[in-house]
Structures are given as C-alpha cells and as structure tokens.
Amino acid sequence: MGGLGAALADLVLPRTCAGCGVPGSALCRRCTAALGSPREATPRRPPRAMPPTVAAGAYAGPVRPAVAAFKEHGRAELAGPLGAALALAVGVHAVLLPGRPVLLVPVPPSRAALRARGRDCVRELATAAVADLRAAGVDAGCARLLTRAGRVRDSAGLSVAQRRANLAGTFAVRPGALPAGALLVVVDDVVTSGATLTEAAAVVRATRRADDAPVLAAVVAATPRPGTPAAPPGRFPAGLARAPTRRLDRLSGPRDSD
C-alpha cells in the first residue's frame, strides 16, 4: 500500500530533484554526489573549543536548495539521502576512533522553528543516519541528550562572537546518566560559524569524565571556505562508500583543554 500511495502521489505531484529540479528521484545521482566528499568543517573564524567537525559536503550548489526543501518546504522524503550524508560524516569519526559505540546527539530546534516547521528536522536526519550506520555494521544509536534551556534571537547578521554570546546558556543536558565510553557526536544539518555546535558540545562535554572519549560533531554540509579541500577517498566501514585515508589530527580530540 505504501508503494501504491507513493506511485499515485507521483502521478499527481511528480517528483523533482530538490537540488537541480530535474524530474525523477528526491535527490538525483549528480546532486547526491555533492554530499559524497567528507571534509573537516573549517569556519573562517572558528570559535574557541569548537569540536572537531566533519561535513559530508559543502553547503553550496545543489546542496543548499536541497537542505532548504527538507527544512522549510516539507519535503520529508529528503531525510533519506540527507541522513545518508550525515551517516557518511559520522562514519569518519567511527573510522578514526574505532571500538566504541557511537551515539548521535541531535541539536534540538528552537521553539519558534518547531512551531514553524511542525517537526524536528535534525532528529529526523539523525534517525535516518543511525539506520544507515547500523546497516554498515557500526554500533550506532541516537541520544536526545540536549534540550533548549533558553531563548535566542535570530542570528542573521551577527558576528561569530555575537552568535556565541547569543547562544550562551541555550542548551542543557536532560536528566539521566550519560553512557560511559560511548563516542558522542553532536549532529546538525549545516554549520556556518560553528557557534551552535560549540555551545552544544560544551554542555555535553561538561558532563563527561576526563578519560571519556572526546565530544565530536558532524553535519550534512558546511558553508565552504576557500582553499578547504575535500578529503581523499579511502576505506569506510563495510557498506559505507567512502572515507578519508589521511588521518585528521584534530579529529582525535578536543582542540582546547577547557
């Protein structure tokens, strides 16, 4: 029945690629390829203690309208391909720090965003990413550890320092013990300045023991910075298509000791 319903929906509202608009799948093969080159996300002026962050691709070209279609225009079917991209980014951490269960920690939406969209988009992406990671043999799960603890104003037009100040005190950890030994990866859809990931990771990191695994981050896409190359192809866990072979030193632990 589900397949029949999708076919009937296609007759009434034919699918088009959210990236380039050509008829066919939700995200065509060419646009999907734009999310197949994981790289370290490097904002122009990264906040101090920004967690080591991997992005599946650049927030440019067809990726930008695809993410917007998923978040702002109700194209929930894009959770599949965008979630697979997030799994690719998380998979880099799983390769570089093997032997630990991986827990994805979605950045929670603001109340305004939840009211406007009617759904938690990042959580949807994290759920889809966990399914792909498990299918690839990675011991992965999704942990709703973070909650919004305060209100923030729109960050458009704010500097990095202003964004960080605006987000201070925004997140809190839900009651309950955090799993010891797990690799915690804070996940979001897009990183621009790094302020949101830094604040979220700092709150999680404050609850960890000194000998626990570092708190890392992964996103679907990162705002491109000139001169930042994509990571070269290599080995991923079985079932994942690509991974960097160059060991990224900053992916092995926090950049600062705070």
Automatic annotation (TrEMBL):
Composition-biased stretches, type Pro residues, lie in 226-235
Among InterPro entries, the record links this protein to: ComF/GntX_DNA_util-trans (IPR051910), PRTase-like (IPR029057)
Q: Name one GO molecular function term.
A: glycosyltransferase activity
Keywords (alphabetical) are:
Glycosyltransferase, Transferase
- List compositional bias (Basic and acidic residues) regions by residue number: 246-258
Q: Note down the stretches annotated as region Disordered.
A: 224-258
Q: What name is this protein filed under?
A: Putative amidophosphoribosyltransferase
Organism expressing this protein natively: Geodermatophilus normandii
